[in-house]
Every structure is written in C-alpha cells, then in structure tokens.
Amino acid sequence: MIRPQQTIFLISTAILFFTGIILFSYRTYEWGMVPLLGLLILYLFTQKNRSVVPLFFFFLLGFLLFQFANGWVNGWDVSKETKILLNRAFLLIILLTAALSQWISHEKVWLYTVFPHWKKRVSMPSHTISLPFFLLIGLAGSCTIFIPLLWSGEISEMRSLFLFAVGFTILNATLEELIWRGVILSSLIRNTSVVYAVAVTSIGFGLLHLSIGIPLFLSLLFSFGGVFYSFVVLKTESVYPSIAFHMVMNMGMVLNGWIN
After folding, report:
1. Which residues in the chain belong to E strands, given as ranges?
2. What is the pTM of this model?
3. 203-222: per-residue pLDDT in tens?
4. DSSP calls for 15-79
5. What are the distances in angstroms from CA 44 to CA 22, 37, 79, 166?
6. Are 206 and 219 in contact (CB under 8 A)?
7. Three-state DSSP class for 157?
C-alpha cells in the first residue's frame, strides 16, 4: 500500500517532470533547469521510490540534448522533410538517456520486446477475448485515421508523400513506443502503481508533442492515445502491437497532411 508521503512524493516528481517537458518544449531552457534542480533535491533527500527520480531526470536531460540537436539541424540548408526525419531520429537520444537512468539505478531495462502469445486470452471488464481478435479491434480503430483520404482528390501528391510517410512512421512510432511504453512504463510499473505509470507516461507522451509545434490542448488530447497504447502493451505484454498501431496512425496523419 502506498503511504500518503509516498503519494505526495510521486505526484511532486510527476509535476516536475511535466513542467520540465513543457519548459524545454518552448525552449525556455533557463527556467527548465528549475525542475531538474527540484528532481535532484528530491533524489538527495528521499529514500523511497528513488529510482523514479533518475528516470525523470535523465529523460529531461535527454530531451534537452534532443532540443539542442534539432536547433543545430534547423540551421542546415536541407529540405523540410529531412529536418522532420532527423527530428524523429534524435528521439534516440532520449531513449538512450532514459535507459542510462536504469543502469545507474541498477535496474534491468525491460522494453516489453517479447512477441505476444497468440493463444492468450485478454481479460476485459466482464469477459475475455482472444488476443488476435483484440488486436484486430485495435487495428480497425487505428485505421479510421485513413477515412479523410476517401474524400481527397490529391492522389498524386499522396504518392509523393509515401516515402516520407514510411520513414517518419518507422522512426517516430518505434522510438516513441520504446521510450514511453518500453523503458518508462516498464520501470514505473516495477516501482509504482499501474495507474501512476499509465497516467505519467500518457500525459508525458502527449506533452512531448509540444516540441513539434502542436498546441497544448491538442497535445493533451494525444495523451488519450498514450492510454490506448499502454493498454495494448499491458494486455499483450509486448510493445510490438502498440508500435504497429502507432505506425498506422502516423501513416494516416502524414498522408492526411497533418504532419508537415
């Protein structure tokens, strides 16, 4: 059972984590140092749940490096599509720093990188369903992103976008899922509650979209996608289905012209 003091500690670390993401997203780096300092102080003066703090601290450090790398690339004389792909590739920096935090905390990095057991039945509130049927429902829901394309007459333009869409989809979906549902969700579930782990990773996932220019309200709406992907990972005990669903969504977003 989580004690009130632990609850206050976990909420405080989450608030500092979210604040750091917001400040670094808007490139207010001086103010962004405040949440980092706050996390460091919590680490030094707390014994319980200390492994949570390095996870958030090193994520923010990685995010800071990610922002610097993208600022550097923005000065290059390359196409807009190339800059977007490099932006997504730099998510590897965050993944590596988050994984580094686990090594420093002497914890195993578990990315849910096992294939799902196809004969498994997934527990729902009032019944169970087969895993293939569960994944089929998720895939069908993800594919609704393509509905707007039915009314688009710019087929030739969509074809020219296809290679960019494939590159963006692979980089973005794979790295974001490994960061949020791989390293961070698995670590938080080991050290906190499932509710806390899902809430933090989902809200953080949404807020990170601020860094690519998406408004705050819409970024928070992306948090619902984070809840869905977390649900898929926890039910299948594998990150691969969530990567696949994420790829479908990203492909639809690019072809619909929502990523530019």
Report:
1. 121-123, 128-130
2. 0.91
3. 999 999 999 999 999 999 99
4. HHHHHHHHHHHTT-HHHHHHHHHHHHHHHHH--TTTTHHHHHHHHHHHHHHHHHHHHHHTTS---
5. 24, 11, 45, 44
6. yes
7. helix
